[in-house]
Amino acid sequence: MRALCLNVSLFTATLPKNYTPLIHSYCNCSSPSFPGDNGRFRLRVTTTRRRNSKSEIFLGDEEEVEAGENEKFSSIAEETSRAMRMRRSKGVVDTEEEDDSSMLLSLSVKPDRNMALLDDYEMEELDFVPENPNHRSGYVAVLGKPNVGKSTLSNQMVGQKLSIVTDKPQTTRHRVLGICSGPDHQTHEPCLGVPMQMILYDTPGVIEKKMHKLDTMMMKNVRSAAVNADCVLVVVDACKVPAKIDEVLEEGVGDLKYKVPTLLVLNKKDLIKPGEIAKRLEWYEKFTDVDEVIPVSAKYGHGVEDVKDWILSKLPLGPAYYPKDIASEHPERFFVAEIVREKIFLQYRNEVPYACQVNVVSYKTRPNAKDFIQVEVIVERNTQKIILIGKEGKALKLLATAARLDIEDFLQKKVFLEVEVKVKENWRQDEGLLKDYGYGGHIQTL
């Protein structure tokens, strides 16, 4: 089991190795330490390069790869029927049960909170204890236009960097599920501690003009995120002139037959004067159809506890949806791909980052060596591939090294990272490819 997976019960141990959810011992921290915040892109490791006629591949950390080494990687054990039942209760579906590579995790299906699905042995292995009757849990959709700070706010609330963050708009493409749990959420009211679990859906920025099929599918994911929501956060940029949020509400919750509690989060208050904040608060309270407006600085965590208090007041009573020691249901390979994509956004300019799709082709655990991770970067044109690789492969080497360092910080272990660049013309318009890449509401767990 991975070094990342501390105190793992049967609930995670019986799942495929690459599906093990991210373990986070304490999610309710107000000042999280994000992986890679110190910007340490150490280029100390010797990285070998090999070329072929189709693509450029960089192998990190090791100067040689012995022939047939991949065959020595540990294989995934055959799943037990109990694990299959538990995965189904969590929304994991198998299109072909005999083919593990076809296993998909639904991003739309709520897991079943009915403990009757588990037998006595499973409850014992899960360290199950009766829930506090005052326990609250529910789903929160985080909506807003591009580059308003949705991902930064979500990361602060979870207490850990799950969503990638850059200064470029439309960085987030998937609904990123973050779980904030606490045996006691200390509100601002004295002696009032409420056990809770908030499940946050960080969504792509709402865009009006959809240029590709990818944009259309991303907006569909925004709408479906609100279907499960018990409340909605609409994030706006305090630095910009106040404007109505009708477009965001229509795109996010317009199809719902009932009105869901909605909070407007006025982000980036640290960048404007206090007097201006008061004016913007007054405008949004007067001209928008929301229940409350709270100013915050997601970057520094100011006001985040006020947002948590509001959410807690809207969540229904009920047991937790997920074990309290995980911060996301997404598999590790999802976050590995996102880290690589973040580095692409940070390193390259103009259209190149938006034309890139990152897939983890292979993720193999090796008990006596570094884990092996093979990643492919898909671009639409050969000119983009040339830019990604750079002169003599230097740009791709820099990308691979920066990504590897953050992946190691995230996984808390050393890895061997291989990055390959491929061209697939107009992949952003290919609905079949987009579904394979996880934009259809399901992601691969293996």
TrEMBL record:
One record GO biological process: ribosomal small subunit assembly
Subcellular location: Plastid, Chloroplast stroma, Chloroplast nucleoid
G2: annotated segments: 170-174
Segments of this protein annotated with the region G1: 144-151
Family matches, as Pfam families: KH_2 (PF07650), MMR_HSR1 (PF01926)
UniProt cross-references to Gene3D superfamilies, sorted A to Z: 3.30.300.20, P-loop containing nucleotide triphosphate hydrolases
Keyword line: GTP-binding, Nucleotide-binding, RNA-binding
Region (G3): 202-205
Keyword Plastid annotated: no
Span of domain KH type-2: 348-425
Ranges for domain Era-type G: 136-317
Region (G5): 296-298
Entry's Gene Ontology cellular component terms: chloroplast nucleoid
InterPro entries per UniProt: G_ERA_dom, GTP-bd, GTPase_Era-like, KH_dom-like_a/b, KH_dom_type_2, KH_sf_prok-type, P-loop_NTPase, Small_GTP-bd
Family: Belongs to the TRAFAC class TrmE-Era-EngA-EngB-Septin-like GTPase superfamily. Era GTPase family.
Function recorded in the entry: Nuclear genome-encoded probable GTPase involved in ribosome biogenesis in chloroplasts. Plays a role in 16S rRNA maturation in plastids and may contribute to the assembly of the small (30S) ribosomal subunit.
Name of this protein: GTP-binding protein Era
Lineage: Eukaryota, Viridiplantae, Streptophyta, Embryophyta, Tracheophyta
